[in-house]
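Suppose a colleague, Dr. K., hands you the sequence of a protein chain of 162 amino acids and asks what its three-dimensional shape might be. Before reaching for any lab equipment, you can write down a predicted structure in token form. Begin with the sequence itself:
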Amino acid sequence: MSLPVLDQLQQHFAVASRGIQHGVLVFELDPDALVSTVQQLRDAFGFDLFLDVTAVDWPDAALRFEVVYHLYSTIHKVRVRLKLRVSGKAPVVDTLISLYGSAHYMERECHDMYGIRFRGNPDLRPILLYEGFVGHPLRKDYPKQQEQPLVPYLPPQGALVR
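The predicted structure, expressed as tokens, is then:
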């Protein structure tokens, strides 16, 4: 794939590595460059849609987690993938809330599943799991057979209980 915007992006950004995989431009970034890079992608190149943030767990690697972002340009009709590596002991990256409001929820999901903390996100309460869930189920060291604490079911106010 050789869209003019992808060629411009490859020339514009100084990143650790870059390439095209499955028709998507992929940048590997230093975590400190995340917010400034995403802001440039949004403001200068029209990547106006934040699709998602997730992670990949490499338990034997020195930098255990690969945090992966997907952005889309509705102007150019192309995607870009950003990857950055963080330590397993302190998996922290900056939030993108100031650039994309939808980051509130997507970062909460990534925190739920992998335990990645998003510096600056004021609300990392569970969004997919319940309060009191122990651990992060998409980490490769999560014990599949682990039993979780029971949470009592409280019916909604005014509901008939039989």
